[in-house]
Amino acid sequence: MLALFFTTLASLFTVVNPLGAVPVYLAMTSQYTRAERTHLARTTSMYFVLILLSFFLAGMLILNFFGISLNALRIAGGLIILHSGYGLLNGVFADRRAISKEVEEEAQHKQDISFTPLAMPLLSGPGSISLLIGMFVENKDWVIRGVIIGVIFAMGVIVYLILRSAPYLFRVLGASGLQAMSRVMGFLVMSIGIQYIIAGLVSLVQSLLQ
Question: Which residues of the chain have pLDDT under 50?
């Protein structure tokens, strides 16, 4: 179970890539005090956990309601994750998360930016959501599902710590360091996306042959 926990955490961390969100987060909170940033980091991480947890637990209902098969979800989710990874590899993290200059400017004037655009779509997006829905459907055992729920909460803590430490991380790593790490993450995200697509195609072919 411990191996499952860390494997799932590594996959989710790679797809979410909270380190890549640091420059965007700092740009949106340039006028915030330290106390305001701490509060914002806490509420953003809470919303982040609630969003992912909701989609994870409602995974089967979503698929049944729209009549989507697991193979279709794997292929579509894999394409989304692949697209997101390609964006990270090319240094366009914000664009792949639908965070444009207009969105950043609008965020400067919003009272609360913790839910949107920070928790969604900056941190929790189609890639992480499709990944978790796929995990819920693939794993029927509630013990395994409980481990994945624990991973979601652990990811929320990691997001909080990274956002709270964002100014320090930016000073230590710099824009170039964070971008370099995002590109490494991009390669790993693309690998996860390709693996998802292959799994969906293989399962689809097997079901057709039967």
Answer: none
